[in-house]
Specification:
Layout: H1 2-33, H2 40-58, H3 61-70, H4 79-96, H5 103-106, H6 108-135, H7 137-140, H8 144-181, H9 190-214, H10 231-239, H11 242-272, H12 279-327, H13 331-342, H14 345-367, H15 372-376, H16 378-400, H17 414-442, H18 447-474
Helix pairs in contact: 1-4, 1-8, 1-9, 1-11, 1-16, 2-6, 2-16, 3-6, 4-6, 4-9, 8-9, 8-12, 8-14, 11-14, 11-16, 11-17, 12-13, 12-14, 12-17, 14-18, 16-17
Length: about 475
């Protein structure tokens, strides 16, 4: 239980960090930093930079996985990168949510250069931490039931971390704005945002430290089947793992749809409902539903297995979208839509994570060598790619729909509402349907199939071990 809780605390701070960066950075830019007429150009430049940097850095994620796989220290190969990555990324996050001591206005070019450097630094070191943290899952056990327990614990932590920021972000910003900037309570300031981000940074580093102090990787015959990973080995390990590629294709469409809608949700409350404070209810509801949803995963996995969880979860989300389309400006209906939309998300994530984790052994059987971090790097790569695309879309939609600064809901044009709905609802609905069809037709790495693969690997490696021992005796 100590290990499960420690893993959960690590993913708690980790996902609080990720949601803050992916969802709220553009909100900070458009509502606090660049709010005057003519500032749209700066928002556009920063948006373009973020997308280019994230997409460019994402291509290096498999190589980062290769570096982690090649690491060999007295603390193992995962824990050093979890700590180093978390500390550096946390420091960068605090600077990113600021005006860089006034440079945003006094020296825009210098500000843009610093934002680019900071964002690149955050992305690279967060990638090391992210890949190492989730790569520990296939290293803690080969048994599916034990993996599911660790995966469930980690997802409870990450769900709470991701959703707790929704609960605390508005009251925390208001509180820090009042304390630091001395404004009346109820007003937001840039310093209030920075204060909130400092808390998130501390949660990220603290959680990483607890995980590293309490979780160690398991050593066994199958995990010893490794070798130094070269660049060609990295792409061969991914390219020949067909199950991993199909999972990745489906999960990208799912993740992109989810992140776009989730990122635009705060805009919905601010500029469609005209009640930004009510956004806190989203966090409360999703925290409660998230814990219930994740807790159900082990029982659902035993009852209906992962493929049904993944496809059924998407069907549940589609119901949420339909309710959204009829909700309009009714807060109760919007909250019901959020409940339907969010409830299956942790289940779909876990179904994906556990299937990717099992694809480590599938890839080992195909390639003849084990690549844990390279394989597990694919899921964070997809999440960041979806986040990068989302950041670009959110920045553009906010400007095109007129949802910037102190604009009131009554000032949003019908065309603006239509454009907003297209990206928040209609496009994600289509992509989710395609994701479900891909997973149904192409992913066949079931729990039973994985058990067969593990048994075959043990048989092969024991035979190889006996042959090596016989050869040594003959020599």
């Amino acid at each position: 239980m100590r290990k499960y809780i420690s893993y959960a605390l690590g993913t708690f701070g980790h996902d609080a960090f990720y949601n803050t960066l992916s969802i709220y950075f553009m909100m900070f830019l458009t509502s606090q930093l660049f709010t005057n007429s003519g500032d749209e150009k700066m928002v556009g430049i920063v948006t373009m930079m973020v997308v280019v940097i994230r997409v460019g850095e994402i291509m290096f994620d498999p190589m980062i996985g290769g570096i982690v796989d090649n690491t060999n220290t007295r603390w193992g190969k995962f824990r050093p990168w979890i700590m180093i990555g978390s500390v550096v990324a946390a420091i960068g996050l605090v600077f990113l949510f600021s005006d860089y001591f006034g440079l945003a206005w006094n020296s825009p070019i210098f500000y843009l250069a610093l934002v680019a450097i900071t964002f690149l630094m955050i992305d690279v070191f967060y990638s090391f931490s992210d890949i190492a943290l989730w790569s520990m899952l296939p290293a803690v056990s080969l048994d599916n039931k034990t993996r599911t327990k660790f995966g469930t614990a980690s997802r409870i932590g990450s769900t709470l971390g991701a959703q707790i920021v929704i609960v605390i972000i508005t009251p925390a910003i208001l509180l820090f704005s009042h304390w630091i900037s001395k404004v009346p309570f109820g007003q937001q300031t840039r310093a209030g945002w920075t204060g909130y981000v400092v808390i998130v940074a501390l949660l990220c580093v603290g959680g990483a430290l607890i995980t590293c102090l309490n979780i160690k990787e398991e050593h066994n015959l199958i995990r010893s089947n490794v070798k130094h990973t070269t660049v060609s080995d990295i792409f061969r390990a991914i390219g020949r793992n067909k199950q991993l590629l199909w999972i990745a294709a489906s999960y990208f469409l799912f993740a992109f749809s989810y992140v776009v809608t989730n990122s635009l949700l705060m805009y919905y409350f601010t500029y469609r409902l005209g009640d930004a404070a009510a956004y806190t209810w989203v966090g409360v509801i999703t925290c409660i539903l998230g814990v219930i949803s994740v807790s159900l995963f082990p029982a659902l996995e035993a009852l209906i297995q992962r493929k049904a969880i993944y496809i059924g979860g998407i069907a549940f989300m589609l119901i949420g979208y339909i309710i959204f389309l009829f909700a309009g400006q009714s807060l109760p209906l919007v909250l019901v839509a959020v409940s339907f939309y969010f409830f299956p998300y942790p289940l779909i994530f876990l179904a994906t994570l556990m299937t990717i984790t099992d694809s480590v052994e599938y890839g080992q059987l195909v390639n003849g060598v084990r690549n844990e971090s390279v394989t597990l790097s694919v899921r964070p790569l997809i999440d960041k790619l979806a986040g990068a695309a989302s950041n670009g879309i959110v920045g553009i939609v906010a400007v095109v729909a007129g949802m910037t600064g102190s604009t009131k809901p009554s000032e949003i044009t019908a065309a603006g509402v239509s454009q907003f709905n297209m990206f928040m609802f209609y496009i994600p609905i289509v992509l989710l349907i395609i994701a479900a069809l891909i997973f149904y037709a192409k992913v066949d790495l079931t729990e039973a199939k994985h058990a067969e693969i593990v048994a075959e690997l043990r048989k092969r490696l024991k035979a190889q071990q006996s042959q090596n021992a016989s050869a040594q005796q003959a020599d």
